[in-house]
Amino acid sequence: MQNRLRRFTAVLVAASGLPCFSSAALAQVTPKDVVWNDEFTGAALDTSKWVYQLGNGDGVNLAGWGNNELEYYTNRPQNVRLEGGNLVLTARRENFKGDKATGGSDQTFEWTSGRIRTAGKFSRTYGKIELRAKMPSGKGIWPALWMLPEDVPDNTYGTWAANGEIDIFEGKGAQPSKLWQTLHYGGQWPNNQYSSRELEFPNAGTLDGWHVYTLEWKGGEIKWLVDGVVTSIQTAWWSSKAAPPKSEADLAAWPAPFDKPFYVLLNLAVGGNFGGNPDASTPDSNTMLIDYVRWSSLPDEKRDPGVRPTMSYPWTPSTTPARAAQASGNLVYNESFDWDASNAYVKANPQASVLSSVTRSSFWTVYQTNAGEAFTLGNDAARGNSLKVDISKPGAVNYAVQVRQDGLNVEQNKRYQLDFDAWASVPRTVMVKLGGGDKRGYAAYSGEKIISLGTTAGEHHTFTFDMTANTDTATRLEFNLGAAGAGQVWIDNAVLRQVEDATKVAARSPLPDGNLIYNGGFAQEDPKVPGIAALANTSYWKTYFEGGHTLTPTLENGELKLTVDKLNPANNWFVQLNQPGIPLEAGKSYTLSLRAHSSSPRTVAVVIGEEGGSYARYLDKTAALDMAPQTFTYTFTAPVTNQVSILQVLGAVGKAGDSYALFFDDFKLVQNAP
């Protein structure tokens, strides 16, 4: 449940081919084996067993609970109560002002709900955890039963997800026949990984029926069951707090992190990265019922987990045979969607993927979330046989409509250039990236490039990136077209070429005063260096926005002014001010300063880190802006050498529909003396 990337990253939850097992596999326990339980038969929540979590995550520096959720959790009976022998969690559509004094936020929220946990009251290593529950359905409703590690002195595996997370059950209200069961592990964010299974309820069940959800956790094995039917088994995972982990020498001992005490969480979230946001069809009140929670011991729970199983890691060399580039050097096959059955590459690759109903689409594939999006594909003969994607329902996330080519061989320490033509029936954006698949944690080697499309046929786009990750012979080129409105999009002439050795690319030199940020005062116009579109004196800077609101950059009294109208606050990165290409050296100390203010109080994020790849953040702080200009200063040590780091200010903050302005000036980043 926690921290599903953007940041972060477009995450694709793949359905496993694992079959359902016989219910005979259910471990048998007796009442004497129960070590902790709550039957919810009292008049009020038993606070000797449970702790309320309040707010929207601001109190733990995790606004939106790391998932861009919309709800504000309270301890009011309207959101959390006992009734009829059940725990009742209710998500309500209402205007609710948060309370900063209790660890929340003083913003006004459109949804409230309930979230409770046993942290500090009860946690345990291993056993059988069983819950009987009835969930609500409705677009944007996200019920979850899950577990996190207890923060105890001997739990030394680091932060999420190196310390683990077990999702017993998650549901998407818009897909009531399905459920998700997931294990989070790996490195500390953003080097985390996960193993997940998306499946249909056994026996044609649905979310809104009563079901028994069970987790059996033993040394080296975690097993999920629904109504006594085994649905998932995981026996391979890893943990490392190295940043980032680079070899097996960085791994914690097996079976870390799932050999320490965990506690239980129950919550009913609204909106966010997992299932998208609610809409007018979503009920104003949504109720989740829990009949009981029981934690039992298992006879063999502390069994010897054995030796570490064989598995893949981010540093594991790719086993996919490298596909050769075309004679032109292009790594993309059928780049113009015009190869027919007579093409030599098509003849040599009879098993190559194709797009259904698109006659000249060898080597291309499509992905969709099957959560309400709708689109058709075809070759447009009137426009040079380009691929036409006609989107009638765009879905809730950008990867809801994804056109992709797999199998590109992208080598470490090489620089690449992607060129392509893309345009649309109405102006819109598309997210384009070169990245890894599930074995690479869907890493974005190129970064997630947000490309603005106009309506002129044949409109050309290009960008370059350095491949800093291990060579990946199964790299994916993705055009993510979801969540950006209905209409037609055309794609053509996709060319990816290696252009030079990235290790030989010279780092950008500091300015005479030592400043590593170029044009920090927004007073420079270099005709050779692009800046913010149609805005003079902004060379080296870029802006970005998405989410339906508008962003208008202007210069006013020597400051850069970013005017946001009708805010969509689902992600703070929906409004960005960026400067890429900043060189940093591992182990060196740096100080960043900037001058800023806003038309109304806003707390923006200030980030320096990796552009793409794992999106590692070397500096991750906030700036509380108000109407008076002030200077903000931050000091940090670069954990790695990165000659093309990126500075970002993330400014989509507030409540839905807000309009405001952010002002910036005098950016300076200097390396500190030893």
List keywords for this structure.
8-stranded mixed β-sheet; disordered N terminus; mainly beta; 674 residues; Jelly Rolls; 10-stranded mixed β-sheet
Description:
1% of the residues lie in helices and 43% in strands. It is mainly β. The chain has three domains: 23-296, Sandwich (Jelly Rolls); 344-504, Galactose-binding domain-like (Jelly Rolls, Sandwich), CATH 2.60.120; 542-671, Jelly Rolls. Strands 1, 3, 4, 5, 6, 8, 13, 14, 15 and 18 form a ten-stranded mixed sheet that branches. Strands 2, 7, 9, 10, 11, 12, 16 and 17 form an eight-stranded mixed sheet that branches. The protein has a five-stranded antiparallel sheet with strand order 19-22-27-24-25, with no helix packed on it. The longest helix is centred in the middle third of the chain and has 5 residues, at 344-348. Residues 3-25 have low confidence and may be disordered.
What is the residue-averaged pLDDT?
90
User: Per CATH, which architecture of the largest domain?
Assistant: Sandwich
Termini Cα gap: 42 Å
- Note the total helix count: 1
Alpha-beta content class: mainly beta
Helix content: under 10%
CATH topology of the largest domain: Jelly Rolls
The tally of structural domains comes to 3
What Rg is obtained from the alpha carbons, in whole angstroms? 25 Å
